[in-house]
Predict the 3D structure of the following.
Amino acid sequence: MLLKFLLPCLLFVFSKEVLGAHECVWITGQVNCQHDPSKNLNVEIRVYDRDSTFFLLKLMDPDDLMGVTFSSENGLFSLDGCGDDFDWVPGFKNKPEPYIQIRHYCNKAEGETITLPEFSTFVPNTYELGTFQLDGPSNGAPKVNLKTNRT
């Protein structure tokens, strides 16, 4: 009786290792608050793995936090993290869909959160955000420069 319960549980736990895609990201960049450079310090940058776009599934399986960091006084940051996604369809790899959220206090005392589009740059390459203006109009998706050698 106990074996009938434990075997499916063990298969489920180990199936993620066998049937899941594990990917890591390296991210570098700089955030800039032009009207008040003192607010460049401690901007919170997070990278998430998007799990589902369907509302009901999002409630059951929210996006996974892959990593978090805070910017230096000149706005520079580097961030790394890893994510796992289960391969729901055999033969089709379901890679993590990373995206960045930036939480800052440049424009409002209560703070703002900026969510950037998904990207698909994984280790050994580095996703370079460049300089992101916190108090200016967004010019669309940031440019991506790939680096294959990280030291």
Remarks:
- The chain has one domain: 2-133.
- Residues 79 and 144 are 15 Å apart (CA to CA).
- The mean pLDDT is 82.
